[in-house]
Every structure is written in structure tokens, then in C-alpha cells.
Design brief:
Keywords: Repeat, Repressor, WD repeat. The protein has a domain at about 35-155. It is built from 17 helices and 58 strands. By secondary structure, the protein is of the alpha+beta class. Helix content is about 15%, strand content about 30%. Strand 15 (about 520-530) and strand 16 (about 530-535) form a beta hairpin. The strands form 14 sheets. Strands 29-54-53-52-51 form a five-stranded mixed sheet, with no helix packed on it. A five-stranded antiparallel sheet has the order 47-48-49-50-58, with no helix packed on it. Strands 1-28-27-26 form a four-stranded antiparallel sheet.
């Protein structure tokens, strides 16, 4: 029904109730199913009117709709059966058993015989489970409490339990108003217009006999303008109420509920009377209904509510901006691809990796693009740096704690202590990876960079093989999803290993899982070996979808990178393979791609890249398709040596492609950008552990050579081989010995000449004023600076032949970007003393907005138009640091001049709480998702840790100021989390320190010499392997983050012209979000410099040896005094 029909039904229901048409009221409630009258339901249950109870319920749900509904009907029929037995009416009881209760035997085979056995008892209370059954009245009351809980938890009743607030006799009032309005244009209106004139369009005779046009021209049931709501400003950062279930999802999940609800354990159906304590777990969902009553039933007050719901109370012109203005698109930048060229495909063989056992699964690291994870048929997992061909780490299959596993697994291990890898996958941030084995087990490893690989979790996940795994973020927590031979899908907490959900419904082993989300709706697609496709929400309500894959094939599914297009690829039992795109709105195949074989060997694997390409391994070849063209784009054999159906995997950017070989190896293919990546990484890797790479990166390459006869337990055991060249373990040991000798004569890399690095001062036509804050955009294609005079500057790199990625680089100058209006993003500085202000800003995740302050009000700017969207929080106190909540862009943490931290909800313009713990202004804030905490730092040299659950202070500690050092009483202390989200960097003018957040323990500290200059700023590199620090003598130092060991020093003479009359130095430093060796400096003279190592070098200096004690001394710069607090 239309929205107007719904409103009319409520008006009619009120009218019928006022007129005492009771039976008609409840018939309309049931037939419209708009309002479930819980009071009437209670009344009929209390009176034992069971036929009417079920008849009324049938207007809203059926027995088999979901588990909640099934339990509701079961409890009612069980009570009816017990009452018949209690009266001694066995004939009635048998009838109820046969007609009403037998239906539940299909869901619980043991239940029906158990209930039937009650007929044989003199008193059913002799049954232990029913021994506490009282009289009929109390039993009905207890059951009614349980039923109400089930109804409130049942999503089919959501939005149907509250009647809108209407004034008395509202329908009569509206009819009278309409009658008056209909006659108000009459020249001679009747004093008492007849109600019958509403039955037709009213006309009024004119003196000359003409007819006046009727003011009523719309049909009663015509469309009604949508009430309330303001056009959202694109995809972020301030989203309004949860979006309803999208059309595309609704097509697949006909019964899916748009509102996330609590997973309420319905409990098994049984004889036990409802447990009041347990039933208290069934609570009304906190999430407001999608059809918000404030929007559906406007009153004078709701008009005000609607206006307040606008983010910040933005001006009307802002809210009318077209939705498609975001994400931001700058001149010269285009996200669309007009034509897909085969030249963009990774087709050139650039490396051969000798894995030494058959490859079963592969996955590229999501951040470090040249890091490849490989799993094999003997349970071996390896991490490869493909640019150098070095196998960084290897692990063999081993059950970590056999005693904690099921007896089934223990028994299988006795006969054969080995297992094949079925799937390997990195977590979205690359800090974890999962391994699914052919025997019960899933392993999660924590990856800390380099060869630092640690056991994280062992999960005895399934009975039989674990066929697939994937990561997802339901309820904002990282989970791992598994499926297996036992026909089940399970969801596990990736931090604790606790099982969150079990989904059952497949009739065959589950082959693959594909989690995804659309507009706040999280769901999982699953496929079984019988070709069935199902979809699940994170609840206990069963599958929302039941479709057949083309050809009933064993299928995997994958979305395009932007999440808008769904594809699947599978192979039937007869060997016919299908690769298709799905129309999600209909749950039907949209297009079938041509070119796959009709007699494939094994299941064909596929992957997607760049929202543009599909790739599959089939018929000893690699086959490529343009997503928008069903015809095969091209196919290659990668110089031969491929199996019939090779494993295939794209890197995240689609520049590299890994493909398994028939010789137990992996070939790496690259496009032009991928070749550049490989060369860059190869140059960085040094000669110490590099294996041969195909030197010319030409089209010609060799298949993987023979296996290396070494112990696979050695991380150096399997090296790259080319043209039969293989290295054995003695060679490796010899090289390690050489490296140990080199480490003894290691020397700090000093860069003092402009020819020793790549440096670019960004062009600037605006007034040069010292740079106070600096950041790269999350895309890595722009740099945003905030100057002392409260003006922001944005530099944007364009795509060109010299810069094919459009990312920031020192090789190509960017454009100082301004909108056509010529306006500048300028912070409010009215009544502000700039010398005392502490400027701050924070960038939204999609680079669309920047929130900024320079001692005055906080301003919100649109990054495309530079318009000030709004200002808020006028001082005092002034904001001194800003940070977006990682799980909700509507929430920001604001460090204040008065030493407090305010947790502010921007959507409702409200301070949720104030955190008090510092003694001076707050100068740093950092969130950790992994630890669910916020770390704050202040000018009081104190660090505080706050829990995100309740915002209570968990710990605090003052910095250890190095002996003999005194610091500025208002010196800023900044904090930044490591990529692992468990350790964080502390930056103070007297020191750099690494802290363990969970214990708030300083595990490493570095301080410059007393006589040297002070630290002005520092930051982690994007991979957290390095730390860049700037000093007030103009120098920059690079440290290895593990141990704070100094690696390289950059002198100011290498990037600034010598000028004795002026003292220029960097105030701020920022690291590129994806290029680990690029950083930028903001200088006191208003300049911004981008710094990179020479392309031939590829990295900053060489890795220092691991040793304790005082590090190397430095001339004209801070010395590496290592003050460990361990």
C-alpha cells in the first residue's frame, strides 16, 4: 500500500474505535497488518480464545515465517493441549496433537513423541519438565510474558506495535477542515456546507453561468510529497538514520528486514514452561524503526525535530546540493573508465616463485602490494616478497593445541597428521591472515611486518574440511567467517575466537562464502557444492535467498572493488564452467560471459580488478574479460607451464596477477604500473637476500625451475629459481654470514647533498606563512596544509604520462588547487590570539570534508567547493585537537584548551560526554579499534587511556623526561597508533617513545643529546615499519620503528638552499598513506616539501644491526641515545 493508504488506515482505525466498532477494528488491524494490537492480543490469550488468537496472528505472520513465529505458535498450541489434558478431555487433546502440534515434528523429530507421551500419564505434571505447571490462569500469564517478548523481538512485528499519536476524532476534524476548504473560494459560500459535497469535486455557480475550476484536482489516493528528511550530502562523513534495505538487496532477500536487530536466542521448542529469567534476554531492539514516527506523523513539534536532524543545521542550499557531487573529483581526475585497454592488464611475466608444493590458494596483502600469501596441498603457508623473490616466512601444518580439539579431529590426526590448505586470506587491514585447512582447523596469524609472524588463534571450526574463510565487520567488530563439509557457515570473533553465529540450511557441503554490505546492511552469500546459493543476515532467522547457480555448479562469488557489481564463477559436475554477473534487484543472471571451457578440469577460479576486469584460469590459460563485454577480451598462456585450472589472484590495485604453475610454483604477471612497483621494491630490497628476477621485464619469461631440495621448515628454504638456477641451504647460510660481517661495519646513512634524494618544494602563489598542520589525503593524491594565518592550501597531483597513478610524488609538481569561485578555506579567527592558538584539523575518510580550527570556532569545509558548511563550538574553551571516531564519522573527539576531551555527535549537535584527566591543554588523540580505546596526550606530558564503552579512564601515565632535560611547559605531546593498533608512538620535544597501549607501558624511548636541537614532529610511515622525525635545526631522521634504531639522517642542506640570514626548519611532518618511503614537511617559511629516496636506491639508508645500548652518534644533528625503559 502507499504511504497515504497507511495513514488513512490509522485514521479509520481511530474512528472505528471511537465509534465502538470493536470487531471491525480488529478485522481491519488484521487485514491491513499495519498495527498489531497487543492489548487485544493479551485479552484473547488471557480468556483462552485460542481460535481468535491464531486467526488474529495470521494477519501478521505464519508458523513457518521465522523461528520467532514458530515459537509463538508452538507455545500457544502447547498451552491449548495442556489445558485439554488438565480438563481430562483426551479426545480434544488428541485432536490438538494431530491437527496443531504435528506440524512441528518436521522441525524437531523427538518433540512430537515426547508430547504424545503425556497422554499416557494420569497427570501430565508427573513429567519432570512440567512439574511446576500451576493452574490455567497462572500458566497463561507466564506464557503471555514469553509471547510478548517473542513478538517484540520478531522483525515481522517491528513498526507495528505502536499506534501513532493522533488527536481525538482526527478524521472528523480533517473532514470538517476539508469541507470548509472546499467551499472557501466560493463567492457565496454556504454557512453550513453539506457533507455530501465531499463525494464529488465541488463546483459553484457563477453569476454568468460559468463554472469555476475546482481547487481539488488530485485524486484522493494520489502520490503524497515525502515528509521530512533532507537530501544527504553524498556518502559521508555525516550519515543520517540507517538506510532502508536497498532495492538490490530486497530482490535477493525478500524477507530481509531493513533494521538491524538483536540476535535473540529463540531457544528450542520443548515442554519446559517459559523461563522468565531467560525471556528477559528478549528485549525491544534499540535501533529505531526505519519508518521513523517522527517522519511519518508530523506534528508541530516534529517539524522542529526534523530541522534539528540536519547535520550541524547546515544551510538550506547545502542540503539541496546534488547527491552525486561526492566523492570529490578534481579537474583532470576521472574515476570512470571510458574504454578498457588490454594494455592495462597484467600480462607480462616478471617473476617465478618456486613454492615446492602444489599451490591451492593465494592472496596479496591489502597494503603492501608486493607481499603474497600462498597456501599449498601439504598444509604449507608462505609469505613472499614477490619483487625480490624472497620467501619471507614459511609455516607447516601443525595443530597448536591438540588437547583442546574435538575427539574427531584428534582421531583423524592419529591416522594422518597432515592437511591441505583450502583457503588463505588477509584481513582488510593486513594485520591478520586466516588459513582454512582440509581438516576441521582454521588458523589465524598476526603479521607485524617483515618475517614477524605470530600464532594468533586456532579454531576447531567444522566437522570435516573447512572449505573457505573470509573477514567481515558485523557490528563494527572484525570477524572471520568459515564454511565447511558439515554444511554450516560460522562467524567467529577474530580477536577472541568466540563463535558469534551458526547458519544452517544448506543440504550439501558449503563451498564458499562472500560477505558484503550495502547501506548499513551486512550480509553473507554462501554457495554449496550442489549449486545452491543462499544469503544470510547476521541473525538467527535463516537464509533470505535460495537460488541455483548456473548449471548447478560449484561456485564462488565476488564483488567488484567498489562493491556495486556481483559476479560468480563455477564449474558443474560435467565440467562446464560459467562466469556471470548477477542482477541483484531480481536475483537473476544479468550477463553470461563467453569463452570458458565446456570440459574444465577442477573448479575454475576467478577474480575481479579495478571495477573493470574479470580473470579466470581455464584450459591451461589465463582468460580476461571487460566487465561490460561478454566476449573474451584476451587470453595468454604466461609462457606455458600452467595447469588446466590454475589458481588466480589479483593484487588490490590490479597491477599484479599471481597464477599457479604445474611445477609447484607461482608466476607473477604485471602491467606497466606493476612493473614500476616491482622495480621500485626491488631497488629497495638490496642485494642481501634477493633472488633473481627476470631482468628486462620483457614478454619472455621462463617457467619455474625444479624444486629446491631444502628443509621447508627453514624460512629461507625455498628460493626463486630461473632457468634451472637454484640455491641450496649452504648458499643461504653463507650469505647470512656475509651479512653478519657487513653489520659489524654498518654506518649511518647521511644525506647532505641535493643529488642524494628527490625533493620537491610545492608551488605556491598564495601568501607564504608558516605551516602549522600538514596531512596527505587518504587517496594519496593530494596534500592539505593549514598555515599560521588560518588559511588552508590544497595541492593536487594530476594523472599524466609522467605520473600514471595520479598519486603524490616528488618527480612531478602538483597544482595548488582552488575552486572556480576563488574562495579560500579560512578558519574563524575573530577574537583569537594566533600566537596562543593551537591549530588543528581532521580529514574525513573519503577526503570530502575537513574539520578545522585555529583558536576560534570549529569549521567544517567541503573539500571540493571550499565552502564553509558550518561552524560550531565557539571558544572558550578553544579546540586544540580533532579526531574522527573510527567506527562512526558522526562522532568526533575534540581536545580542548581547558584540558578536557569532548565527545561530540555532529549529527545531533550535542556533546555526549566530557573526559577529564589532563592538567593542561590536550594536544593529541588517537583511537584504537583493536583495543576499543582512545589515547589522549596533553601539554602536561601526560598520556591517558579511555575506554570507548562508557568513556571511563582506564589508565594514565606521565612521560619520563630524560635526565638533564627541561621542556617548554606548553610543549605539545602527540600520539599515533602503530598499524597493529596495540602500540603507539609518543612525540614530545624531548623524546620519541613507543608505548604498549593495553598496559600503558613504555617499551622503548629515544632522546636527542642535551645540547642538540629539539624534536618538532614525528610520524609512522604508512606500513609502521619506519618513523620519520623532524628537528628544529632543519634535519630529518628516519628510525626503524622496532627498537627505535636510527637508520638515516637527512641534512637541511639536501633540500633547502643555504641562507645564513634566516632560520628555516620543519614544524610538521606527514607520511604518504601508501608509499612507505615518501613523506612531506611543512616549514616555518611557508614551504611544503615532498621527499623521496632516489629511484635507484628505493629506500632510505640501510637497516642498522640489532644491538643494545647507545646508537651511532651524529654530527650537526641529534644523537641516537637509546634510553630503553624495558
Amino acid at each position: 500500500m502507499s504511504s497515504l493508504s497507511r495513514e488513512l488506515v490509522f485514521l479509520i482505525l481511530q474512528f472505528l474505535d471511537e465509534e465502538k466498532f470493536k470487531e471491525t477494528v480488529h478485522k481491519l488491524e488484521k487485514e491491513s497488518s499495519f498495527f498489531f494490537n497487543i492489548r487485544y492480543f493479551e485479552e484473547t490469550v488471557t480468556n483462552g480464545e485460542w481460535d481468535e488468537v491464531e486467526k488474529y496472528l495470521s494477519g501478521f505472520t505464519k508458523v513457518d515465517d521465522n523461528r520467532y513465529s514458530m515459537k509463538i505458535f508452538f507455545e500457544i498450541r502447547k498451552q491449548k493441549y495442556l489445558e485439554a489434558l488438565d480438563k481430562g478431555d483426551h479426545a480434544k487433546a488428541v485432536e490438538i496433537l494431530r491437527k496443531d502440534l504435528k506440524v512441528f515434528s518436521t522441525f524437531n523429530e523427538d518433540l512430537f513423541p515426547e508430547i504424545a507421551m503425556l497422554l499416557t500419564l494420569q497427570n501430565f505434571r508427573e513429567n519432570d519438565q512440567l512439574s511446576k505447571y500451576g493452574d490455567t490462569k497462572s500458566a497463561r500469564a507466564i506464557m503471555l510474558v514469553e509471547l510478548k517478548k517473542l513478538i517484540e523481538a520478531n522483525p515481522l512485528f517491528r513498526d507495528k506495535l505502536q499506534f501513532p499519536s493522533l488527536k481525538n476524532s482526527r478524521l472528523r476534524t480533517l473532514i470538517n477542515q476539508s469541507l470548509n476548504w472546499q467551499h472557501q473560494l466560493c463567492k457565496n459560500p454556504k454557512p453550513n456546507p453539506d457533507i455530501k459535497t465531499l463525494f464529488v469535486d465541488h463546483t459553484c455557480g457563477q453569476p454568468n453561468g460559468a463554472r469555476a475550476p475546482s481547487p481539488v484536482t488530485n485524486q484522493l489516493m494520489g502520490p503524497l510529497p515525502k515528509v521530512g528528511g533532507f537530501p544527504p550530502i553524498g556518502p559521508g562523513p555525516f550519515q543520517h538514520a540507517p538506510a532502508p534495505l536497498t532495492t538490490s538487496l530486497a530482490g535477493w532477500m525478500v524477507n530481509a528486514n531493513s533494521v538491524p536487530h538483536q540476535a535473540v536466542s529463540v531457544g528450542p521448542m520443548g515442554l519446559t514452561p517459559p523461563n522468565n529469567a531467560a525471556s528477559m534476554m528478549l528485549k525491544r531492539p534499540r535501533t529505531p524503526p526505519t519508518n521513523n514516527p517522527a517522519l511519518d506523523y508530523q506534528t508541530a513539534d516534529s517539524e522542529h525535530v526534523l530541522k534539528r536532524s540536519r547535520a550541524f543545521g547546515l544551510p538550506e542550499e547545502v542540503n539541496k546540493m546534488p547527491v552525486n557531487i561526492l566523492p570529490i573529483v578534481y579537474p583532470g581526475q576521472s574515476h570512470a573508465h571510458s574504454s578498457n585497454s588490454a594494455d592495462d592488464l597484467p600480462k607480462t611475466v616478471v617473476a617465478n616463485l618456486n613454492q615446492s608444493s602444489a599451490v591451492k590458494s593465494m592472496d596479496f596483502h591489502p597494503v603492501q602490494q608486493t607481499l603474497l600469501l600462498v597456501g599449498t596441498n601439504i598444509g604449507e603457508i608462505s609469505v613472499w616478497e614477490v619483487s625480490s623473490g624472497e620467501r619471507i616466512e614459511v609455516r607447516n601444518f601443525k595443530v597448536w593445541d591438540l588437547g583442546a580439539c574435538t575427539m574427531t579431529l584428534q582421531a583423524s590426526m592419529v591416522n594422518e597428521y597432515t592437511a591441505s590448505v583450502n583457503r588463505v586470506m588477509w584481513s582488510p587491514d593486513g594485520n591478520l591472515f586466516g588459513v582454512a585447512y582440509s581438516k576441521h582447523i582454521v588458523h589465524l596469524y598476526a603479521y607485524h611486518g617483515g618475517n614477524d609472524l605470530r600464532n594468533h588463534l586456532e579454531i576447531d571450526a567444522h566437522v570435516g574440511g573447512v572449505n573457505d574463510l573470509a573477514f567481515s565487520h558485523p557490528n563494527k567488530q572484525l570477524c572471520v567467517i568459515t564454511c565447511g563439509e558439515d554444511k554450516a557457515i560460522k562467524v567467529w570473533d577474530a580477536v577472541t575466537g568466540v563463535k558469534q553465529y551458526t547458519f544452517e540450511g544448506h543440504e550439501a557441503p558449503v563451498y564458499s562464502v562472500c560477505p558484503h554490505y550495502k547501506e548499513n546492511i551486512q550480509f553473507i552469500f554462501s554457495t554449496a557444492v550442489d549449486g545452491k546459493i543462499k544469503a544470510w543476515l547476521y541473525d538467527n532467522m535463516g537464509s533470505r535467498v535460495d537460488y541455483d547457480a548456473p548449471g548447478h555448479s560449484c561456485t564462488t562469488m565476488a564483488y567488484s572493488a567498489d562493491g556495486t557489481r556481483l559476479f560468480s564463477c563455477g564449474t558443474s559436475k560435467e565440467g562446464e564452467s560459467f562466469i556471470v554477473e548477477w542482477n541483484e534487484s531480481e536475483g537473476a543472471v544479468k550477463r553470461t560471459y563467453l569463452g570458458l571451457g565446456k570440459r574444465s578440469v577442477g573448479v575454475v577460479q576467478f577474480d575481479t580488478a579495478k571495477n573493470r576486469f574479470l580473470v579466470a584460469g581455464d584450459e591451461f590459460k589465463i582468460k580476461y574479460w571487460d566487465m561490460d563485454n561478454v566476449n573474451l577480451m584476451t587470453s595468454i598462456d604466461a609462457d606455458g607451464g600452467l595447469p588446466a585450472s590454475p589458481c588466480i589472484r589479483f593484487s588490490k590495485e590490479g597491477t599484479l596477477l599471481a597464477v599457479s604453475t604445474s611445477e609447484n610454483g607461482v608466476k607473477i604477471l604485471a602491467n606497466t604500473e606493476g612493473i614500476r612497483q616491482m622495480r621500485s621494491m626491488e631497488n629497495r630490497a638490496g642485494a642481501s637476500s634477493k633472488a633473481p628476477i627476470i631482468g628486462t621485464f620483457g614478454a619472455s619469461g621462463s617457467a619455474a625451475g625444479p624444486s629446491v631440495g631444502t628443509d621447508r621448515n627453514s624460512p629461507m628454504g625455498a628460493m626463486i629459481s630461473l632457468n634451472g638456477d637454484s640455491r641450496n641451504l649452504p648458499d643461504v647460510k653463507s650469505r647470512i654470514s656475509e651479512e653478519m660481517e657487513k653489520s659489524k661495519i654498518w654506518k649511518l646513512t647521511e644525506i647532505s647533498e641535493q643529488s642524494q634524494l628527490r625533493s620537491l618544494r610545492l608551488p605556491d602563489s598564495l601568501l607564504s606563512v608558516r605551516i602549522i598542520r600538514l596531512i596527505y589525503t587518504n587517496s594519496g593524491s593530494s596534500i592539505l596544509a593549514l598555515a599560521y594565518n588560518a588559511v588552508h592550501k590544497l595541492w593536487k597531483w594530476q594523472r599524466s604520462e609522467r605520473n600514471v597513478t595520479g598519486k603524490a610524488t616528488a618527480a612531478v609538481p602538483p597544482q595548488l588547487w582552488q575552486p572556480s569561485s576563488g574562495i579560500l578555506m579560512t578558519n574563524d579567527i575573530s577574537e583569537t590570539n594566533l600566537e596562543e592558538a593551537v591549530p588543528c584539523f581532521a580529514l574525513s575518510k573519503n577526503d570530502s570534508y575537513v574539520m578545522s580550527a585555529s583558536g576560534g570556532k570549529i569549521s567544517l569545509f567541503n573539500m571540493m567547493t571550499f565552502k564553509t558548511m558550518t561552524t560550531f563550538m565557539p571558544p572558550p574553551p578553544a579546540a586544540t585537537f580533532l579526531a574522527f571516531h573510527p567506527q562512526d564519522n558522526n562522532v568526533i573527539a575534540i581536545g580542548m584548551e581547558d584540558s578536557s576531551v569532548q565527545i561530540y555527535n555532529v549529527r545531533v549537535d550535542e556533546v555526549k560526554t566530557k573526559l577529564k584527566g589532563h592538567q593542561k591543554r590536550v594536544t593529541g588523540l588517537a583511537f584504537s579499534n583493536a583495543l576499543n580505546c582512545l589515547v589522549s596526550s596533553g601539554a602536561d606530558a601526560q598520556i591517558c587511556v579511555w575506554s570507548l564503552d562508557g568513556w571511563e579512564k582506564k589508565a594514565n601515565k606521565f612521560l619520563q623526561i630524560p635526565s638533564g632535560r627541561s621542556s617548554n611547559p606548553l610543549a605539545q605531546t602527540r600520539v599515533q597508533f602503530h598499524q597493529d593498533q596495540t602500540q603507539f608512538l609518543v612525540v614530545h620535544e624531548t623524546q620519541l617513545a613507543i608505548y604498549e597501549a593495553s598496559k600503558l607501558e613504555c617499551i622503548k624511548q629515544w632522546a636527542p643529546r642535551e645540547s642538540s636541537s629539539v624534536i618538532t614532529d614525528a610520524t609512522y610511515s604508512c606500513d609502521s615499519q619506519s618513523i620519520y622525525a623532524s628537528f628544529d635545526d632543519g634535519s630529518v631522521c628516519l628510525f626503524i620503528s622496532a627498537g627505535l634504531r636510527l637508520r638515516c639522517r637527512i641534512s637541511p642542506t639536501s633540500y633547502m638552499p643555504s641562507n645564513p640570514s634566516s632560520r628555516v626548519y620543519p614544524l610538521v611532518i606527514t607520511a604518504h598513506p601508501t608509499e612507505a618511503n615518501q613523506f612531506a614537511l611543512g616549514l616555518t617559511d611557508g614551504g611544503v616539501h615532498v621527499m623521496e629516496p632516489l629511484e635507484a636506491e628505493g629506500k632510505w639508508g640501510t637497516v642498522p644491526p640489532q644491538e643494545n645500548g647507545t646508537g651511532p652518534s651524529m654530527s650537526h644533528a641529534p644523537a641516537a641515545q637509546d634510553n630503553s625503559s624495558r
